[in-house]
Amino acid sequence: MIKQLSIATLALALSAPVLAEKEFENHNNMMDHGDGHLMDMTGGMVMGQNTDTLPGGCDSIAAVKEITVHAGHKYSEKFPGRMFAFDVQEYQFEPCTKLTINFINDDSVRHQWMMHGLPKYLYPKGMFHLEVTGPGKISGTLIFPPADKTYLVHCDIAQHMEKGMKAQLKIGKGDGDLPSIPGLTAYVIQDDYSGSNPEESLADTVVEEITQMKNKVVGNDSFFSGLTVIGLAIGLLLAPLLARKFKGMAIGEVIAYIFSLLKISVEMIVKVISWLIGLVKK
User: Fold this and answer.
1) What pLDDT sits at residue 15?
2) CATH number of the domain that 57 lies in?
3) 43-63 pLDDT tens trace
4) Which distant-in-sequence residues (6+ apart) come within 8 Å of 103 by Cβ?
5) Per-residue DSSP letters for the chain?
């Protein structure tokens, strides 16, 4: 009997580490693999770290900031239908800010905090990436580019982003809001349990309204010709200012900045068209 109890006790003792939950780990002793890539053997990883190289167009560090970001299931409870989330869904910083992120995983599974769309000449993968497996903390630093832009921040583990773990980070004024950010913007595909067919899409409605407006208000191409002349005049006036703005920026950043200006212009045009549609309907 005593022998049997001893064997059972030994078996329980050997199995205890397997059954025990992983303890919180501070990943502060990682190996540097170069190009801003650091990792350890216990589930911590940093990719794309940049602590001292200025992006093109930044004459100096505008500000030095530090934030703490939590990730876990409990932060999704305020978003019905979501499974995972960050504790904060939106961040905003000045261009050329040097930011250190302390990323804390409060779950027993793997989570990430990733930014996409960064200039590849400085961030080889075009992204900044923090990762922790199980409860723990990891820190990394990057320097933001100068242009106003809205970046996607998310967890890239399968289905984690779709289940709510995403946010947006705005540099300067940003260049708009991203869709399906929990608590901030409407979901691209809303949950629908009614069983009815969806109504006519917004895109089809907008196209139809614009066509009707053109037929009623424009009538000919002179209106669009006038817009072309005005656009060229504005371009000539802004050219010297843009030349100074682009000084020191890489080609990729110049293109990204131009596209951001084009996006803003398109949004303004859409607003004007919507206003004209409103007048036609009255």
Assistant:
1) 47
2) 2.60.40.420
3) 899 999 999 999 999 999 999
4) 69, 71, 113, 130, 132, 137, 138, 139, 140
5) -HHHHHHHHHHHHHHHHHHSPPPPEE----EE-STT-EE-TTSEEEES--SSPPPTT-SS--EEEEEEEEEEGGGGTTSTT---EES-SEEEE-TTEEEEEEEEE-SSSEEEEEEE---TTTSTTSEEEEEEESSEEEEEEEE--SS-EEEEEE--STTTTTTT-EEEEEETT-S---TT-TTTS--SS----S-PPP-S-HHHHHHHHHHHHIIIII-STHHHHHHHHHHHHHHHHHHHHHHHHTTT--HHHHHHHHHHHHHHHHHHHHHHHHHHHHHHH-
Q: Which residues of the chain have pLDDT under 70?
A: 1-21, 191-252, 254, 256, 280-282
Q: How many domains does the chain have?
A: 2
Question: Which region, left, alpha or beta, applies to residue 10 given φ > 0 means left and ψ of -120 to 50 means alpha?
Answer: alpha
Range of the domain at 256: 202-281
Mention every residue, 6+ apart, whose C-beta is less than 8 A from residue 19. Answer: none
pLDDT digits (tens, 9 = 90+) for 106-165: 999 999 999 989 999 999 889 999 999 999 999 999 999 999 999 999 999 989 999 999
Same domain flag for 167 and 206: no
**pTM exceeds 0.90, yes or no:** no
pLDDT of residue 48: 93
Would residue 177 count as lying in a domain? no
Four-residue CA torsion sign, 178, 88, 161, 126: positive
Structure tokens at 49: 């770290």
